[in-house]
Amino acid sequence: MTGTAPPRGPGTAGIRSAVLRTGAAFAVAAAALTGCSSGGKGSPVWTAGSSATESMTSTATTAPASSASASAAPGSSTAAWKVFTDPTKTVSFEVPRDWIVQSVAPDPGTLPGALKIIVKDAKGAYLATLQTGLPPQPAPACPGGAARDYVVVSSVPVDLPHAGGEGTIDPHVVFRVIQGYKYFGSYGITNVVGGAGGKSCALQNVVRGPAGKGDFSFGDLTVLKTLAPDRKVAPAKAFDTLDQAAKYVNEGSEFADVQRMLMSLKIKN
Question: What is the C-alpha separation between 68 and 46, in angstroms, rounded?
């Protein structure tokens, strides 16, 4: 999404006020309390920073199994789906029948047996990358004053193998927005808490894997950060307002399809 850069946005309190003025705010309150939603479709969780879904332990759910003739997910325009499985049968996930799934060489430094799988839409536009066997990375350094406000727009628990520990939660499929000269958004799976006090320098779309397996990531970005005006935005999403981010999540078919794909991920432990 393009447009002129808006003036410097409000702080955390301003974000909350803006959100409460949206038409979806009433439904959001219930979602924030439960931390999940029905049908595999995430409702917005307009809670700045470490929301209820980032601090509570939820009962994990997965999208129902489907076939090529299954009905489309809520908000989705796709009815025909297929299941992708890598040759070693280590991972599998569902995609719309006309999407493109490509296995490519893993990045240098990944663990033996690592996978890298790129997903594109029917026109060849990039959507997401699944990576396994990632070496664990510490949280990026965040100097004082550099952290920016962020918002959890959607967060739905998903059942995936993972390691626990400080700074982690149960895995979730999320869409989060961090505030810069625009509101930059990204979807993915994570069990890493975003940041304290509703602020962060970088939001990781990474799940800490079981011991010896490495971490794994499935989303449009591995790390979401704010970008300078002269930087290329894609594959991050860019919004002029939080309402635009809410409409992308709740009204667009792309996110509905991507969310179903992410929710369907299965990894052999």
Answer: 34
Among 163, 140, 266, 262, smallest CA distance to 214 is for 163
Q: 242 and 183 in contact (C-beta within 8 Å)?
A: yes
Say which residue the tokens 């625009």 belong to. Answer: 182
Q: pTM for this one?
A: 0.75
Backbone angles phi and psi of 18, in degrees to 5? -65, -40
Residue with tokens 């975003």: 194
Q: Are 22 and 121 in contact (CB under 8 A)?
A: no
**Max Cα separation, the chain?**
52
Q: What is the pLDDT of residues 93-132, one digit of tens each?
A: 999 999 999 999 999 999 999 999 999 999 999 999 999 9
- What is the number of residues in the chain? 269
Give the residue from 249, 188, 194 showing the smallest Cα distance to 219.
Answer: 188
Long-range pairs, 62-65, Cβ under 8 A, ≥24: 62/158, 62/159, 62/263, 62/264, 63/94, 63/260, 63/263, 63/264, 64/40
Q: How buried is 42 (Cβ within 10 angstroms: 0-12 exposed, 13-18 middle, 19+ buried)? A: buried
d(CA 120, CA 152): 25
Q: Which residues 6+ apart lie within 8 Å of 206 measured at CB?
A: 134, 137, 188, 190, 192, 215, 216, 217, 222, 223
User: Number of C-alpha atoms within 13 angstroms, CB side, residue 171?
Assistant: 28
